[in-house]
Structure formats: structure tokens, C-alpha cells
Amino acid sequence: MDAVEEIKSRLSIEDVIGEYVQLKRAGRNFRGLSPFTNEKTPSFMVSPEKQIWHDFSSGKGGNMFSFIMEVEGLEFKGALELLARKAGVDLEQYKTSSGGRSGGPDKERLLAANEAAAKFYQVQLRGNHEALDYVLTQRHFSKETVLDWKLGYSPNTGTALVDYLKKTGFSEPEILDAGLGTKRTGRISDMFRGRVMIPLSDPQGQVIGFTARLLRSDDNGPKYINTSKTVLYDKSRHIFGLHFAKQAIREQKFAVLVEGNLDVIMSHQAGIKQVVATAGTALTEANLKSLTHFAHDIRLAFDSDSAGIAATERSILLASRLHVALNIIDLKGGKDPDELIKKDPSLWLKAIENCHYAIDWLIGVVQERHDLSTATGKREFSDELMPLIVNLDDAVEQDHYLNLMATKLGVSKDALDNKLRRTSSNSAPRPLKHAKPNIEVLSAQQLENIKCEDHLLSLLQMHPELRTQLEILEPAMLTREPARRLLEVFKQTESDPKKQAKQLAEMEDYVKILMLQYEELYQGLELSELKYEAARLQVRLIEDYVKQQKINLSKQMSAADELQTDKLLAQARRLDELLRDNLGEQIHA
Questions:
Q1: Which pTM was predicted?
Q2: Cα–chain-centroid distance for residue 110?
Q3: Which residues, other chains included, contact 48 with Cβ-Cβ below 8 Å and sequence gap of 6+?
Q4: What's the Cα-to-Cα distance from 432 to each of 75, 76, 324, 461, rounded to whole Å?
Q5: What is the mean pLDDT of residues 436-451?
Q6: CATH topology for 242-361?
Q7: Mutual orientation of helices 358-369 and 306-322 as an angle, nearest 10°?
Q8: Distance between CA atoms of 569 and 556, rounded to whole angstroms?
């Protein structure tokens, strides 16, 4: 048995999902409200028998691993590790048995060391008046906030934490690997001393490191220091506060990104919880990709100093390449969110709501740098903005900004078009692997098409006698790969039941999802009703397919010569015949 099967044998899918969704028994299955949409009527189903879940409102479904990947924004490896911890499965045993043992630090031990350190620091905070005064009086954090975020204090004695961890059973190598200790003159001592400690947590809330802030401004050393890179913590990937913010981000459909960890905590205390932070202003590709698991609208609130503006500009170029909708929050009335909130939390909320689309914001910033009444100013203004404009994939948006720039500069649109072409030819091509974000955003029409094809295939799966209606429907007419594959299996293996059973077993999760849909939608209906429903769904799918193909043909005609246009018109006529001659007869049969 491999690790995946061992985890499945120890965990029940309803218990795993029940930690995120309030489930109620509905016959053999469980039902609840979708965690992915704002539905009011529960259509999220879990089948303990099939170990499958399906969300009728969003069209998503799968096993416990796919659910954790969706709800936690994790790749498969992260979901595997999370569920392994929950099931008490040691993944290292499976690495050893396959000959793939890495020999690296034990992540579970390092997580335990960081958690022990957080508790130690919390205890130390209670006994240090200076640190308590800073947290409660100067920062205005409530006692509840201090407890929720596990704020603490690191004693300035040199080895207080190391001594405690050793007594608790952790070795010196483990303390060093966890980033909690450092070796000075050959002797291990505490990494952090005399500082307010802010735990850094992964998206599941496990402590993986710390940010440490100086208490006294006259002390030598930086105001903030972070845990060094470890197997648990990488500042280029970490997003502070995501474990508390992810549900609010999903519900509000946008994330607010600020500079400081304490800004995040203050915002959450004020009830504005879709707020997170990166390590300083170093927003990375990994940060943006992580956030797109929960929302594609990212709003930046970096400081308005030169470093903050420069970081915002870099973020705009990165977001453009990753197809992320980036907006900028204007912090007028305060130097940072913390200051705004202390004045009035509504000022911070208003700033978030009145954000500006990033490119519009940047054009305004660049315009202030240059004298657009001079030829030099116009050239430098366009030089700065062209690399961004050329990377816009949407032709309408690109044309909009070229027209806007032409108006501001008082030059012809043709001049900017020529400069755009030169900039494009001098730009290195973007890697294809970055062409789209990880999470697919579906339109209402696409979602309806997915539901339609799934419902049809659920009927064909449970009633092979209905498959005689498949002569017209082709795999290319369906939207998703699992649906296309299943239709091919039905068409190609109808006369070979053994081969069909084998191929269906290879797509077991999708087949089970279709079975669950059938039970919820069609169980108990007469065969005549099912036959009519299958015909109706097929007509709907082909009508949508024909409509989309005609749109594509229309676009091709606009750029075609006379001979090509005749061929395209012939294709359009054949599509019309497909609907008129075949589907009309079938739906009325």
C-alpha cells in the first residue's frame, strides 16, 4: 500500500471535509453549503461510500486530496503532507521503502520545535513589562489578538530558548535546522534576543519561523529580523497571515497585500481580515501564484516612500506577466494601514474600496516624473511605460492605453504604434509556463457547459442503452479533458466490455463523481424521461458548440481573402445543417 492509499484507509472523507464545511446527513450522502461559492441552498455533496465530493454550484469535485488542494490552495505534495499529519502517516517510511530517502531534516521535528518555541516566547511575554507595554499600549493590540497571533518575547540572556528546547528533548542540530539557534564561537545560542516575537505560520497555521522586532530604537542592529531560510521557511514564498485571511479572501474575492506584519494583525483586529503581507516589499512570483489560489484581484498597499513606489512598479510588471488583476490602494491620510486604523478603521476600509487599477496608477506616477511639454520628457515617459503596454495580452486594453498615452503626450497614435512594435521586437519572449495562473477562472457560460456535459455523461454512464444517441456528439464538442476521454471510451469500447471496464477504472474519481450526480438528479426517473433528458442535454451541448465555432469562423473571415472566406462560409453552412437535420429530429422523437 502506498502513502496515498494508507491515508485514505485511515481518514474518512466526511471527517476531512467536515472541518471546513458544515455537513448534514442526506440519505447515504452528506450535504452542505459550497465553500467555493456564495450559494444559499446547499448543493455541496459528500459520498462516504464512494469517498468522493462534488460541488454542484461550482462544478468542482474529486477525492479528499483534491478538496484539500482546492480549499487550502496547495499543490498535491502539500495536500499529501497535510493529510499525512492528520492521519498519523510517516511519509519518510514510504521514501525509505522506495529507496528515495533524502537524509534531510525531519520536518515534523522542526515543526514541533517551532511550536515549542512559540509557546516559550508567549510565556516570556507575560513576565516582561516592557514587551507587554509595547504590544498592548503602543501597538494597541487586545489581549485576544495577542493570544490569537501567539505574540511573544525572546529573553536577552543568550541561551534561554536553547536551554528550554534541549530540556524538552530537541537536539542542537534540530534547533539549528529550525532556525531557532545560531553558533557563535563554536557554541550554540539563541537566534533571537530581547525582541517581540511574531510567529510566521504556513497556510494551515503551523509555526514555521519568526519575525523579531527590536523593543528599543537605540539598540544596535536592524529593527526587524526574520528566521533564516530553512526547510520550513522561505521568505520568497511565505505570505504572512494567510492562515487567518484565506477564508475572508475567498469570500470577498480579493486580497489586500501590505508591507508590515503588524499592519496585518491590526487590520484583522479591526475586522478587515482579507489582509496579508510579504517579507518587506519583495513581492515574488511565488507569492502571487499562492494568492491566486484564493482570488485573482490583488490590492497593494505599500508605503508611499521611494522604496514602496519602486516595489509597486515591479509588482505591476510581475502581475501583468502572470495575468493577475492588480490594484493599488492610496494611503492618503496615513503613512501605513496601522496609522489609518488607529485614526478610524473606516478610513482603511474606504481606502481599500477606492483602489486604482495598477496601470492607471503607474501612468500617473510616471507622468509626475517627466515634463511632458518637452520632447525629452515625452520620450522618457513612453520609454518607461512601453515595456508594460507591450506585455498586455488583451488587444482592447492595449489599444486603450496607447490612445490614453497619445492624448497625454499630444502625439499621433501611429507614432506610439511604431514604438510599440519596436519594443515588442526587442523584448525577450515570455516562457509559456507562465502564460496562465494556476487556477482556472470560469465564466457562467463555461460553468453551465461543464454541468451540462457532466449530467449527460452521468446518464450515459448509468444507462448504456442511451449511448445509441452518441452518433452526433464528438469529444471535441465537450469542454474538459475528463469528459472528452470518457466519451471516447464509450464510443471506442462499446463492443469490448473488458477493455471499457479497464479504461473506466483509470478515471475512477471522475466516474464516481458522475455516479453521485446521477443519484442526486435522476435516481428513480422513468427510462423515457431519462431518454428525453439525454437528448435535450446533447442538443444544448451541440448548440453551444456550433455557436462558438461560428464566432471563431467570423473572426477568421475578417482576416481571410476571398477564397478562404468561401471555404469558411461552407463550414458555417455545414454547422447549420448539423443542427437542422439531425438534432431537430432527435429532440422531437
A1: 0.66
A2: 26
A3: 12, 13, 14, 28, 29, 30
A4: 20, 22, 16, 37
A5: 65
A6: Dna Topoisomerase Vi A Subunit; Chain: A, domain 2 (3.40.1360)
A7: 140
A8: 11
Q: Is 197 helix (H, G, I), strand (E, B) or coil?
A: strand
Bridge partners, 47 (sequence order): 52
Spans of all domains in the chain: 3-97, 107-226, 242-361, 371-434, 444-587
Distance CA 412, CA 342 (A): 49
What's the grid cell of residue 492?
471506442
Superfamily of domain 3-97: Zinc finger, CHC2-typedomain (3.90.580.10)
How far is residue 388's CA from residue 318's CA, in Å, rounded to a whole number?
10
Contact 17, 25 (CB under 8 A): no
Kind plus residue range of the DSSP H or E element containing 190: strand 187-190
Q: Cα(286)–Cα(217) distance, rounded to whole angstroms?
A: 33
Correct CATH for 444-587 of 1.10.1660, 1.25.40, 1.10.860, 1.20.1530: 1.10.860
Which alpha helices (H) appear in 253-394, and where do they start and end?
A: 261-269, 285-291, 306-322, 337-343, 345-353, 358-369, 375-389
Do 251 and 202 contact (CB within 8 A), yes or no?
Answer: no
Judge: domain 107-226, CATH 3.90.980.10.
yes
- pLDDT digit string, tens, across residues 39-93: 888 999 999 888 899 999 888 899 999 999 988 888 888 899 889 888 888 887 7
End-to-end CA distance of the chain: 51
Q: Do the domains 242-361 and 107-226 match in fold?
A: no
- Nearest of 175, 179, 170 to residue 199 by alpha carbon: 179
CA distance 589 to 40: 38
Q: In which band, very low, low, confident or very high, does the pLDDT at 311 lie, cut at 50, 70 and 90?
A: confident
Q: Do residues 534 and 460 touch, judged by C-beta distance below 8 A?
A: yes
Q: What is the dihedral of CA 267, 273, 275, 279, to 10 degrees?
A: 80
Distance CA 261, CA 200 (A): 9
Assigned C-alpha cell, 502: 479497464
Distance CA 457, CA 517 (A): 10
Nearest-angstrom CA–CA distance, 277 and 464: 54
A 10 A CB-CB count for 491 gives 14
